[in-house]
Every structure is written in C-alpha cells, then in structure tokens.
Amino acid sequence: MSTARRGRFGLVTLILIGAMMALGSLWLLEVVRRAGVETARAVKRTEPDYYVDNFNYVRMAENGEAQYNISGKRLVHDPVTDTHLIDQPVVNSLSAERAPMSARADRARVDSNSDKVYLYDNVQLNRPASPKADYFHLDTDYLVMLTDEEIMETDRPVHMVIGKSILNGTGMKVNNATGELHLASRVHAVLPPKTATR
C-alpha cells in the first residue's frame, strides 16, 4: 500500500471512530434525559401547589345565581387529595328562598367538587330570625355541609338554640331544604312553655 493510501485509510478510520463516539454520546444523552423525565413524572408532588390569602369564593348554582360563598384567612390547595384547606373559614348561604345562614370554624376542608365542606374546631352556625324561621344557633367541633343537598351533619356533640328552645345531643342531621332536624343520641331539650290561646 502506498503512503498516501495508508494516510487516507488512517484518516477515514479516525473520522469513523469520532463519528461513532459522537453518535454514542448523543444516544447516551437521550437515554439519560428520558430517564430523568420519567422519574420526574413518577415523583408525586406532596407540597401545596398554590395558596391564596384573604380570599372570597362564590359558588354558583346551575341557574346562574350565587349559591354560597366561602371566605377565609388562607386557602391552600393540596394536589395529592385535590382538596382545599382553609384557615378561619366563613361560609354564607345565599339562597333567595331561605333565611341567610352563616357558619364559622377554625379550619375547613373543601373537596374537589366543592359540594362538601368539612368544618373543624369551634364550629358555629347562625341564622337570624325571619318571618319563615326562628333564630337558630349551633355549636359543635365538627360539621359536614353537603351544599348541593342543603344538608348538614355531624357525629359529635352539638348544642343548639332554636327560637327559645335549647337542644343538646350527640350526632345530628339537618335538612335545610325540608326543615327537618334529627338528633341521634343523648338528647336533652329545654322547651319554653306554650303560650295560652283564648
């Protein structure tokens, strides 16, 4: 073989080895990149993904009218359970057919569909007297509000004042749409005497 051919053969071999190393490096880089993307997808986020301070949220009914509003000191979204955690919540019903009702608590959790509101610690519910309903006040430490059905329930002790009546019990279910009230156990009631009619 001539010297020129040997030089060309060495140069071609060197270029081929360099090209193979470059392709191998690109392939290895792509494998590492894809593994990193898949690992990032596999890692679930456990920290809140957003929060709002001093907020006011209005839930609309299907007919376009305001159904209720929730305000609070801080709202935090939990991406793992897709729920909202609220500090110092205040829930106000905005029904045109019924007397307005307001609920307060130390904290709350709202599910992803916004149709269940869980109130925790120092829960107080108030409804002023109206021509259609007596004054209503409720104290408990846990309450579930099913907003679409207008139902409130708890399995914990409750203290209620309805008009001039005082009710205590453990476990309660109230249907605000029908006006039904059910106390489950350990019920104690103080009812005012009926006024005489002539």
Automatic annotation (TrEMBL):
<dbReference type="GO" id="GO:0015221">
    <property type="term" value="F:lipopolysaccharide transmembrane transporter activity"/>
</dbReference>
<dbReference type="GO" id="GO:0005886">
    <property type="term" value="C:plasma membrane"/>
</dbReference>
<keyword id="KW-0812">Transmembrane</keyword>
<dbReference type="InterPro" id="IPR026265">
    <property type="entry name" value="LptC"/>
</dbReference>
<dbReference type="GO" id="GO:0017089">
    <property type="term" value="F:glycolipid transfer activity"/>
</dbReference>
<keyword id="KW-0997">Cell inner membrane</keyword>
<feature type="transmembrane region" description="Helical">
    <location>
        <begin position="9"/>
        <end position="29"/>
    </location>
</feature>
<keyword id="KW-1133">Transmembrane helix</keyword>
<protein>
    <submittedName>
        <fullName>LPS export ABC transporter periplasmic protein LptC</fullName>
    </submittedName>
</protein>
<dbReference type="InterPro" id="IPR052363">
    <property type="entry name" value="LPS_export_LptC"/>
</dbReference>
<dbReference type="InterPro" id="IPR010664">
    <property type="entry name" value="LipoPS_assembly_LptC-rel"/>
</dbReference>
<keyword id="KW-1003">Cell membrane</keyword>
<keyword id="KW-0472">Membrane</keyword>
<dbReference type="GO" id="GO:0030288">
    <property type="term" value="C:outer membrane-bounded periplasmic space"/>
</dbReference>
<dbReference type="Pfam" id="PF06835">
    <property type="entry name" value="LptC"/>
</dbReference>
